[in-house]
Amino acid sequence: MSSGEPSQSRNHASEELTSADGAGALEEILQATNAADRSLSPSEHAAVEAIAQKYLGQEFCCQPILVELVDAFLKARLRQEMSAECWQAMCQEVADVMFQTPETQDRLRSFWQRLCETVS
């Protein structure tokens, strides 16, 4: 029987994500994927390009690609302190929600395709 630790981390991550900063950052991620990279800062652009180079030629997926993209966006936009475990749980949860939403997944696939074309 499970001790419940992962779900407690995910619950804590959910609480962190419901903050005004978290909700704003999530909306910015969605806008950035639809804006053909115009809303990315130079550091964000470098981070997502590094992810694209790392996974170049691979089909877009939630784990590890989207989780790493979410991590890169949130690190640049959130200044909250939390444990690495809670941070990873939050990134995974955000990625899961985005990946499971058909409209968002389509936008993210297009973003990934454009990103891979840029680095190839």
Overview of this structure, please?
- With 120 residues, the chain is an all-alpha fold.
- The chain contains 6 helices and no strands.
- Helix 1 (5-17) crosses helix 5 and helix 2 (20-34) packs across helix 4.
- The longest helix is centred in the last third of the chain and has 18 residues, at 102-119.
- The protein is globular and about 35 Å long.
- Mean pLDDT is 78; it is low at 1-21.
What is the helix/strand order? HHHHHH
Rg value: 14 Å
The overall pLDDT, averaged over residues, is: 78
Low-confidence stretches: 1-21
Share in helix: over 70%
Q: Termini separation (Å)?
A: 47 Å
Shape: globular
- Work out the helix count: 6
Strand percentage: under 5%
Q: What structural class do helix, strand and pairing data support?
A: mainly alpha
Secondary structure: number of strands = 0
Largest sheet: none
In short:
The chain is mainly α and 120 residues long.
Please outline the helices and strands:
Layout: H1 5-17, H2 20-34, H3 42-54, H4 62-77, H5 84-100, H6 102-119
Helix pairs in contact: 1-5, 2-4, 3-4, 3-6, 4-5
Q: What structural keywords apply?
A:
globular; mainly alpha; 120 residues
